Amino acid sequence: MVAVFKKKCLVPNKRVCLRLKAAREAAGISLCQLETRTRIQKKYLQALEECRFDEVGQAFVYQKNFIKKYVQALGQNPESFLQQFTEEESTLKHACNKHPGVGCKKTHFSNLPNIIRFLLVGTAVLSVFIYLGNHIRHILQAPELSIISPSNGLITVENSVAVTGKTPPETKITINGEPIQNDEKGNFNQTIDLSPGINTLVITAQNKHGKTTEETMHVIYKTNKQFSLREQFDTSR
Prior knowledge:
It is a single chain. The longest helix is centred in the middle third of the chain and has 29 residues, at about 110-140. Strands 2-8-7-4-5 form a 5-stranded mixed sheet, with no helix packed on it. A 3-stranded antiparallel sheet has the order 1-3-6, with no helix packed on it. β4 (about 170-175) and β5 (about 180) form a beta hairpin. Mean pLDDT is about 80; it is low at about 1-10 and about 105-110. The chain folds into 2 domains: about 15-115, lambda repressor-like DNA-binding domains (434 Repressor (Amino-terminal Domain), Orthogonal Bundle), CATH 1.10.260.40; about 145-235, Immunoglobulins (Immunoglobulin-like, Sandwich), CATH 2.60.40. It has 8 helices and 8 strands; from the N terminus they run αααααααββββββββα. The protein starts with 15 loop residues before the first helix and ends with a helix. About 15% of the residues are buried. The chain has helices at about 15-25, 30-40, 40-50, 60-75, 80-100, 105-110, 110-140, 225-235, and strands at about 145-150, 155, 160-165, 170-175, 180, 185-195, 195-205, 210-220. The chain is an alpha+beta fold.
């Protein structure tokens, strides 16, 4: 009777990540030394040893390249490691497709650094857009102009009036076309001579982008002579 021999494939009883770590420790090489040899950051080498492959890159080819460099740096043939990695990932993918949500949670957690990185980049981009939006709005918007005194329609017996108000800093102020000085905070205070009767004050604020805001006010200056004539008229009646 002739004995029949069947070829049997030997399957490693350890996951590929554990085999990587065991091979490194057997070679007496630290992670820092391996980092120097492979030029792969230590955190990614640790991710390989803990089966957190998604942290070294989403692309399957990219992950295989990391494993290849890891094993070659130990002076070993990477073929068996790469084959096992391919089989394990294929099995995991099949399990996830067949039973969604079962046994696939680890993949989501392994993506956490990428999610955090995406959120940080997204936040930075959003901040830039908000800054640019505010800057453009500031360019297109006319400056604010707040007149504190005098009130519109003021009647006074004084031959001058103090015009006070506030604008944003770096704003040019004119009253009836004459420029006046404002301080670094945008406050201004200017005394204007009045003529008897109705005086029209046109106050204009212009920012450095050429946008203007204008306020028109009227101040009535009544002289003592006008009051005397009115008193005489009232007495004669």
